[in-house]
Amino acid sequence: MRPRRAGFSLAELLIVTAIAALLLGVAVPDLGALLRAQQIRTATNDLFGAIGLARAQAIARNRTVIVMPRDAAGVDWTQGWTVFADRDGDGVPGAADEILAVHGALPAGVTAAFAFTSPAAPYYIAYNGAGRSCGAGAGTARWGTLSLFHGGAVRRIKINMLGRARACDPERDDHCDGAAAPS
């Protein structure tokens, strides 16, 4: 008689592998949705933090501080953004300005829509020395909604006339309307 060896038979190994593949097949779509939800949540929090930084620095410096998209036209928030103290008053980051923060591009698949009182490009968010929303180089209030979209999820950052920002989710929060997803 040969001694029996400890281990798995080929049939047992195939059954366990088949069950693992089935469970993985069920879990992968949920992991994708979880990843997309986390990406949009992180992007919203990063942008919300940049807006908060701009407002705080505008008050501390008693000068205009701007958050602006990093693309050349100043319209695509998915390419990242720059927070800067606008020392020369031209509304764009330059050699005379102090760069306070720079954020890189958002994950692939995230899109953005900008709906403020002044719809003309460039799209920016500016604060004056009193911490109020304003136009670059102007005292007029500028308020509205910056919306982020990813895989069916939507997050919005709403800035009121006084410059106070709040992040919201239209599925959970009241008064969280904004621009439609770009096509």
UniProtKB/TrEMBL annotation:
Residues 43-163 form the General secretion pathway GspH domain. Keywords: Cell inner membrane, Cell membrane, Membrane, Methylation, Transmembrane, Transmembrane helix. Its main location: membrane. InterPro entries: N_methyl_site (IPR012902), Pilin-like (IPR045584), T2SS_GspH (IPR022346). Pfam families: GspH, N_methyl. It is found in: Cell inner membrane. It is a single-pass membrane protein. It comes from the Bacteria. Belongs to the GSP H family. This is Type II secretion system protein H.
